[in-house]
Design a protein that fits this description.
0% strand
């Protein structure tokens, strides 16, 4: 039987997952932030990514319902508020819709998800199911992609502002608060994993949960890359009318 990892060793293993598997390494992500995407590809990314943004408070609600400690519920509930807002028009989801609005996408169409790729729909459904059905430790550990997101947000935002003249700081307002929120959330999740992963089996399960989350995010970009760069998207998926899918971004 493998020895129990120390907190420092466990954190190093978790961070290694991000170093190898986080979607910051995906070719489509690199293409997006380096100005190589066509406008069609940027729009398809925003439209599909909306479904992931919208699923976050849903999966967090699954976790919230399973937390027995009131203090932990209060802390976790803030994640839902961050995305849903306290009232209509506030929160991360509203800011993501500002992004898709600025790109010229029809809001009702984005919210409906009817033009999203099948792989996107499968991925977000799998994530919600994972957080509902797997042990609470694994559900919380899967959120530890927040360990890696602040640096990615910075590179993505700076790259998109530098390379796409139709993207403004207001367009990317969603990302303004995310680094601070991600640090707060990952600190909570990491402390929870340290406290509740009491066996090597549980530690390995927490690591596997983070690997699952990384694979979920990676698969969404795989679908975008295949559908909009190397092949054709699903017949019912988003198609731009400009016909620029194979033209270099200006």
């Amino acid at each position: 039987m493998a020895d129990l990892l120390s907190p420092a060793e466990l954190e190093a293993r978790l961070r290694d997952v991000g170093a190898r598997r986080y979607h910051s390494r995906h070719p489509f992500q690199i293409r997006l932030q380096s100005g190589q995407c066509t406008r069609t590809e940027v729009e398809a990314w925003a439209l599909n990514r909306y479904l992931y943004q919208a699923c976050i408070p849903q999966k967090d609600s699954q976790v919230l319902a399973r937390l027995e400690d009131a203090g932990m519920r209060r802390e976790w509930r803030q994640r839902i508020i961050d995305h849903d807002g306290e009232r209509e028009g506030e929160g991360g989801i509203a800011k993501w819709l500002k992004l898709t609005d600025d790109l010229g996408l029809d809001r009702e169409t984005v919210i409906s998800g009817r033009l999203a790729l099948p792989a996107t729909k499968f991925a977000v459904t799998a994530y919600i199911s994972f957080c509902r059905d797997r042990p609470l430790l694994e559900a919380i550990a899967s959120s530890l992609t927040e360990l890696f997101s602040p640096s990615v947000i910075k590179v993505r935002s700076e790259g998109m502002l530098a390379h796409y003249d139709y993207v403004t700081p207001e367009t990317l307002a969603y990302f303004n608060k995310r680094p601070v929120q991600a640090k707060r959330d990952s600190d909570f999740a990491l402390a929870y994993v340290f406290e509740h992963a009491k066996t090597r089996e549980q530690q390995d399960a927490a690591i596997a949960a983070l690997e699952f989350k990384c694979s979920m995010l990676w698969s969404m970009l795989d679908a975008l890359e295949h559908g909009y760069i190397y092949a054709k998207p699903w017949p019912d998926a988003f198609q731009a009318e400009r016909g620029d899918a194979r033209q270099a971004a200006e």
